[in-house]
Specification:
Belongs to the metallo-dependent hydrolases superfamily. Hydantoinase/dihydropyrimidinase family. Keywords: Hydrolase, Metal-binding. Its cofactor is Zn(2+). InterPro entries: Amidohydro-rel, Hydantoinase/dihydroPyrase, Metal-dep_hydrolase_composite, Metal_Hydrolase, Metallo-dep_Hydrolases_sf. Its EC number is 3.5.2.2. By secondary structure, the chain is an alpha/beta fold. It has a domain of about 325 residues: TIM Barrel. Helix content is about 30%, strand content about 25%. It has 14 helices and 19 strands. Strands 1, 2, 3, 4, 5, 16, 17, 18 and 19 form a 9-stranded mixed beta sheet that branches. The chain has an 8-stranded parallel beta sheet with strand order 6-9-10-11-12-13-14-15. Strands 7-8 form a two-stranded antiparallel sheet. The radius of gyration is 21 Å and the shape is globular. The structure holds N-(aminocarbonyl)-beta-alanine and zinc ion (3 copies).
């Protein structure tokens, strides 16, 4: 297939300019200024010509943090790799990196096999894996090396969830030493789970059982403390550190201070922390359960700080932490006991659109929008320049984006397999128009043309942000 995208404004992190794009097979073959006339020749023998007049031509989004069909609290997140990657494509995301979850007592390699068998042949877009390490011992530390050799070189650990995923400081230290030795990276869920569990037990004993208690028992100070502790452990070991789903000013302050000293500390935030707040978790009739995720949504004041972090690069990028659970069947498990509400929110479909509101409101530049949603994740997770740029030689993962279109988010129209939208009724400026995944049109004006199995597993290189 040869596809020509004409008359659009190509946006990379380096700038935005009018350019025509030639796609040949799975790759971008060439870019040309419209006045060069080159595209006339390309169009003459193209299979398809897409008119992008008035639209942006962007590198496909990379969502570095998703949980498709993830087991949690006796249930499983409601998007499969098939439904979740289709929804991602609808929203202009052409790569996801999902988390394989080691169950305690099992090996990393059997975990990886299990996740491959869930995802392989199912995905509409390309995908990679991170590994959640729940058990640190001599065997699993050794297995990290094999994971790295098979393109899985980022290892998530938890300072939260005692008895489930929780790792002690000693275990974290050992994994970080291994990361330092191998050039890989530890990703940290930084909340002080030991202290949180006490607050949760006290709340339940006092009969405080509503969803909002999830937020009140996980105060931002305990995210700030855990973030600082993780940074200290990283400093002692010389390992790089990536903080996942950073939600609060306290945690951002810790990251900012570390980065100011030159330490290799990176962090992502998520759209829910930029656009939603603890007030959503306080909605009556158990509706607050829709917004229960960890770390929790914060008071609205934190949002300005997070936007600041995105501007100053103290927050490197935005991922969704997409982990949907249906309201009716699944969030219900925690009615009467907030601690049993499955943790996680849907979002893979709307990251690019929501971040575009940051451009509209003047919080971030057009180029920074592309950087935090595509180029930075590509570099951070070892996919650049195959992914993350509209340039010759890169995969033809391309989004034609209409910045003037309007849309209203709703569960009635979204494509994620979940019965509610966290953004129900929110009116947005901008909308995805056409999406290419490795040279194939997967979404356009008349719908979804992707198919399960088009997406390939990406063996990732080591992070390109380590210096
Ligand atoms: O509540 C959340 N974030 N669920 C997904 C798992 C995780 O900790 O990222
Ligand atoms: Zn987490
Ligand atoms: Zn997550
Ligand atoms: Zn079509």
């Amino acid at each position: 297939m040869r596809i020509v995208i004409r008359n659009g404004t190509v946006v990379n992190t380096t700038g935005a300019s009018k350019a025509d794009v030639l796609v040949d097979g799975e790759r971008i073959a060439a870019l040309a200024a419209p006045e060069s006339g080159l595209a006339d020749g390309w169009a003459a023998d193209a299979d398809r010509v897409i008119d992008a007049e008035g639209k942006y031509v962007l590198p496909g989004g990379i969502d570095g943090h998703t949980h498709m069909e993830m087991p949690f609290g006796g249930t499983s997140s409601s998007d499969t790799f098939a439904t979740g990657t289709a929804a991602a494509a609808w929203g202009g995301t052409t790569t996801i990196i999902d988390f394989a979850v080691q169950a305690k007592g099992t090996s990393l390699l059997s975990t990886l096999d299990k996740w491959h068998s869930k995802a392989d042949g199912q995905c509409a877009i390309d995908y990679g894996f991170h590994m959640i390490v729940s058990d640190v011992n001599d065997g699993t530390l050794k297995e990290m090396e094999t994971c790295i050799d098979s393109g899985v070189n980022t290892f998530k650990m938890f300072m939260a969830y005692p008895g489930v995923f929780y790792a002690t400081d000693g275990e974290i230290l050992r994994a970080m030493q291994k990361a330092r030795e191998t050039g890989s990276m530890v990703m940290m869920h930084a909340e002080n789970g030991i202290a949180i569990d006490q607050l949760v037990a006290q709340a339940l004993a006092q009969g405080r059982t509503d969803p909002v208690q999830h937020g009140l028992t996980r105060p931002p100070e305990l995210e700030g403390e855990a973030t600082s502790r993780a940074i200290t452990l990283a400093k002692v070991t010389g390992a790089p550190l990536y903080i996942v789903h950073l939600s609060s000013a306290q945690a951002l302050d810790a990251v900012t201070a570390a980065r100011d000293t030159g330490q290799n500390v990176f962090a992502e935030t998520c759209p829910q922390y930029l656009f939603l707040s603890i007030d959503d978790m306080a909605k009556p009739d158990f509706e607050g359960a829709k917004y229960v995720a960890s770390p929790p949504l914060r008071p609205r004041e934190h949002q300005a700080e997070l936007w600041r972090g995105l501007r100053t690069n103290d927050l490197s990028l935005v991922s969704t932490d997409h982990c949907p659970f249906c309201f009716v069947e699944q969030k219900e498990l925690g009615r009467g006991d907030f601690s049993k509400i499955p943790n996680g929110m849907p979002g893979v479909e709307h990251r690019i659109d929501l971040l575009h509101q940051g451009v509209v409101r003047g919080e971030i530049s057009l180029q920074r929008w592309v950087e935090i949603s595509s180029t930075a994740p590509a570099r951070m997770f070892g996919l650049y320049p195959r992914k993350g740029a509209v340039q010759p030689g890169s995969d033809a993962d391309i989004v034609v984006y209409d910045p003037a279109a309007r849309q209203t988010l709703s569960a009635a129209t979204h494509h994620m397999n979940v019965d509610y939208s966290a953004y129900e009724g929110m009116e947005l400026v901008g909308k995805v128009d056409t999406v290419l995944s490795r040279g194939r049109v997967v979404v356009d004006a008349d719908g979804f043309h992707g198919n399960a199995g088009h997406g390939q597993f990406l063996e990732r290189e080591l992070s390109q942000y380590l210096i």
